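So, could you explain this one?
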Amino acid sequence: MRTPENSADLIAAEDVLLFANAAITATGQREFRSGALDQQLSLDFLHAYVRVNYRRVYAASLALDINDHNAARIVLGLLETAGGASAEERRTEGRLIAARLALLPPQRVYRLFGEMRRAGINNRRTRAIMRDWLAARPDLGHDAVKYRSGVKTVARHVHLRCPQGAKPLAEVGAFLFRPGKLPRYEHPLLDAWRRAHYEQGAVAELPFTVAEGFAARHGMKREVFLKRATPRMTRLERLRTHAVTRRPDVDLAVMPLTRLALYVLALPFEQRAARRAELTGALRTAARRAAGKHAGSWGRVHAVLDDSFSSSGSGQKRRRPLAVALACHHLLEALAAPGAYRGLWTSGRGDALLVRPWGPTPLGMRVLDALEPGPGGAEADRLVIVSDGWDNAPAGLAGEVLRVWRQRLDPGRRTAVVHVNPVYDADGFDIRRLAAGVPTAGIRDAEDLPALVEIARFAEGRTGAAELHAYLDRRVALFLGEQETEKEAMS
């Protein structure tokens, strides 16, 4: 066992992990046990604290599996306080910012650029980042129609030139700032938007979110509109409207695993049971795709999955914790060796497809069951606990079971134990942990589980800041390398 050189190293490592867990799980929205304001204030403090004391780590977090909300906040924080960074730090930050913006959904980037304008961030470096991002967009005309106010704000902020004779940029400029001046547009979407004001047939040519408003204006029936608009929908838009359209060309298996789990949990029990083969097959296919090269490599895996009442989440994050648990259930099945997975729900249910948020959280009892040898008397190679950490039936039993297990029954660590928590605890500025010796990591999407298990090992207190910084440096190098390779392939 390696001991960190001094207490300062240990504190630094704990601070970094604290922020990483918050940046992965927290979105500033209401949770089951804390309100939105509590979440926002807690995040505000953490962002300011880490940015001031560990700026290098703050920027490197953009290369981790953090959620989009915190990625946008980090970009804003770095650009807003660029004067506090050295020239070398600004170069690295610029590359990280550009690489992360390329991964963010465009609507979130336009919203972020709007926040920059309101904050008065208008230096040359910021304008260059915004221009480069706009230049990399595949179709600015499409963005002008779908994100009109966002494109207009950015164009004003960076002083984007829209010369009269340079098409399609001139058309985009006329569309944004001189609507109605041109009798028609050569860009098909811009012209479809013009015609949709008086021609019902042009509505289906527009992006779905824009077409909805025109459909309502023309009084189109919802079912008819959805069937016409399906070819232009994104995968997630098709998933949201699948319950209405029920088109056979909607392939649920291509959906992201956690998003698919949310869709399944939103269905009534009767539909889940009637579509059991379809839904289970889609979840397993998505899980195998998410497992990738790690499929079948984790050996014998036992899991404790939280479906207690608190997994219902909140009005803003409805059933999110339960969806993460359901997605992890299928992903762990794919990661385990064939036939070597056992999943235990806190409610005692054996049918994963019909789980619902219900009852207390007897984590301790389920952990005891999970630590029992499986068929053939073989112990698990890995025990994964997916829970918000509120062990209350009885309180604290899970932590005590794991402590005794590790100290008395498995000091050689034959079974690797990890706890992943999908809920941020605003009061504790961290995710809730079961026991001090159990590696714990925040999780938002089940697809990130293999990477989170790697970073969770730093939470055991057996490594110092040097190892953690080395890990972050590797992630930054890999992240930037992947983005540059993708740019070269597209150019």
